[in-house]
Write a structure and sequence with these properties.
With about 575 residues, the chain is an alpha+beta fold. The protein has 4 domains: about 110 residues, Roll (CBS-domain); about 160 residues, Beta Polymerase, domain 2; about 150 residues, cca-adding enzyme, domain 2 (Orthogonal Bundle), CATH 1.10.3090; about 50 residues, no CATH class. Helix content is about 50%, strand content about 10%. The strands form 5 sheets. It has an 8-stranded mixed β-sheet with strand order 7-16-15-8-9-12-11-10. A 3-stranded mixed β-sheet has the order 1-2-3. A hairpin with a 2-residue loop joins strand 5 and strand 6. Helix 13 packs parallel to helix 15 and helix 13 packs across helix 16. The longest helix has 20 residues.
Length: about 575
């Protein structure tokens, strides 16, 4: 029995006592299959490939299964790992792991090994973010806090620990107002979703195959509307083939967080009443937020799911974060792999749509250009200085038209800017890869934009009605392309048309034309078109002037055997 006031020695195994002594050493250039063979023969789990770099046996095995056996093992390595002497304390090792290091290299005095963070699954000391939840300035902050408490109580009754996760936690730590609420439960997400929907009087939509549910139309006990609530069962994922959708199975929260895309999205907040508001951060996401960096959770992250590359650019642009060293290596590896036949064009297009809809989406597109990410659309895609300049002009065009109140499809605008200067064959293959067909594809092909810009740039004075006639049949994507391709004359013409020319209409209606003697049918439309052109050219500006024109046309038509206005 411990005695008050007594001092007892603390046993510290130190780094040497924590490490896996079966680690091997190798050269970064060793082939993946050879490194895997060596680890399996030695029953070792990790190979150290130089100072601060190591590769796991599981990553090597997956690479061999995917056909990457001849790749240098260094391409799959964790880089920038902390290195400590065998005498380092357990506390210092755990501190490295809690900052997000997947493993710690122990070296010195002829001893070499690693402390694997996956095995220890260290959790940071309980840090409460409850004050942040309570002081959010959004008008629905109180309602959302009520929801989180109710969710935690429902989870406790059902025996399912419940957590707010992902973007909700990230935005909260950045003191940004989270838009939606994402929940994860250790248990059955469907059952939890049904029960929570009863409490918040919402409509639940279930996806049994994925163990997820969504609640819409929820309200607080006082009837305050709540945002959409997304619920998922904590899960682990396994990618059988690069780019394919993963196989999933239920897992703990710690494993669920470790399978996510980026460390800043791999944090959770406990909603259990006894631990409400405590932050769970097993991979150092909070520190990465402070350092303004994006870090994938393992070297094969972008190979498993290349759409994560586009998400990284989107989050980076929105939050002001930069891809760090490990992320750059993971990006290069994914692009070197090249084609991903099981990655659907619809998924790639969906990521582009999300980027285009962001306020800082153009910054993300420029980042993706710099990364060379559009070779995922087609290996022949090349970003020239002209491409970057055109993308910058596209950004300016979007802002200018937004000020004008002109609505343009942001995704079409982005695609036109990205594909306009690519060779026709490359642009065509990109559209194939994105599964864009039919009328949308025709709008995005460059030939119509080239022809239109050529017409508008032709010398000679052009009446406003003639300019409008040339632009009126063109789809918005064609107008965008012509604006980006053309010179000052073309840009001024298109801006004039979108700002005011397209909206010009006669003051007289079709019924008034019939009363003035224009025969019913197509002749009314022709007459309206001629009135519109006269207004565009400044030949008429009042109802009386239009009426006089129509009366003159009708008189002339009556003298003509076909009865058409002349």
């Amino acid at each position: 029995m411990a005695k008050a006031g007594s001092v007892y020695p603390q046993v510290d195994p130190g780094a040497a006592g924590l490490m896996d002594r079966a680690a091997l050493t190798g050269s970064p250039g060793i082939r993946v299959r050879h490194a895997l063979d060596a680890l399996e023969r030695a029953s070792a789990t990790v190979m150290v490939l130089g100072r601060g770099a190591a590769v796991r046996r599981d990553d090597l095995r997956r690479a061999v299964e995917w056909g990457f056996g001849t790749m240098p093992a260094g391409d799959l390595a964790w880089v920038g790992l902390p290195c400590v002497p065998p005498s380092a304390s357990e506390v210092s090792v755990r501190r490295c792991l809690m900052r997000g290091a997947p493993m710690v290299i122990v070296a010195g005095g002829g001893l070499l090994g690693l402390v694997d963070g996956t095995a220890l699954l260290p959790m940071a000391p309980a840090l409460s973010v409850l004050p942040r939840l309570e002081r959010l300035g959004h008008r629905n902050a109180e309602a959302r806090l009520w929801l989180l408490r109710v969710a935690g109580k429902v989870g406790e009754v059902l025996g399912m620990p419940t957590f707010a996760v992902g973007g909700f936690v990230r935005d909260l730590l950045l003191e940004r107002d989270p838009l939606d609420v994402d929940l994860v439960v250790e248990g059955d997400g469907i059952t939890f979703g049904r029960r929570l929907a009863e409490e918040v009087r919402g409509h639940v939509v279930m996806h049994s195959g994925f163990g997820t549910a969504a609640i819409e139309g929820a309200v607080t006990g006082d009837g305050v509307p709540l945002a959409r609530i997304d619920i998922a069962t904590a899960r682990q994922e396994r990618y059988g083939t690069p780019g394919a959708l993963p196989a999933v199975r239920a897992a703990s929260l710690a494993l669920d967080l470790r399978r996510r895309d980026l460390s800043v999205n791999a944090m959770a907040i406990s909603l259990s009443p006894s631990e409400f508001g405590q932050l769970v951060d097993p991979v150092g996401g909070q520190q990465d937020l402070r350092a303004r960096r994006l870090r994938p959770l393992h070297p094969l992250s972008f190979v498993e799911d290349p759409t994560r590359i586009f998400r990284a650019a989107r989050y980076g642009a929105r939050l002001g974060l930069r891809l760090e060293r490990q992320g750059v290596q993971a990006l290069r590896l994914a692009l070197r792999v090249g084609r991903y036949p099981l990655l659907s064009g619809q998924r790639l297009r969906a990521e582009l749509a999300l980027i285009a809809a962001e306020p800082d989406g153009w910054t993300a597109l420029q980042e993706l250009l710099g990364w060379g990410a559009f070779t995922l659309w087609d290996p022949g895609y090349r970003a020239s200085p002209a491409t970057r300049a055109r993308l910058a002009r596209g950004r300016g065009l979007a802002r200018r038209f937004q000020v004008m109140g002109v609505a343009l499809d942001p995704q079409e605008l982005a695609l036109v800017a990205l594909l306009l200067d690519q060779p026709a064959a490359v642009a065509g293959r990109c559209l194939d890869r994105l599964a864009i067909t039919g009328a949308p594809r025709v709008r995005l092909e460059a030939s119509a934009a080239v022809a239109l810009a050529g017409r508008l740039e032709s010398p000679g004075r052009r009446r406003p009605s003639a300019t409008a006639a040339a632009l009126r049949p063109a789809a918005p994507a064609v107008l965008i392309g012509a604006w980006l391709l053309g010179g000052r004359r073309t840009r001024r013409a298109i801006e004039w048309f979108l700002r005011q020319g397209h909206a010009v209409r006669p003051l007289l209606s079709g019924g008034e034309l019939v009363k003035l003697g224009v025969p019913r049918g197509p002749q009314v439309a022709r007459c309206l078109g001629r009135l519109r052109d006269r207004r565009l050219d400044g030949a008429v500006s009042t109802r009386a002037g239009e009426r006089a024109l129509v009366e003159r046309w009708v008189r002339r038509a009556r003298t003509h055997e076909k009865g058409e206005p002349r």
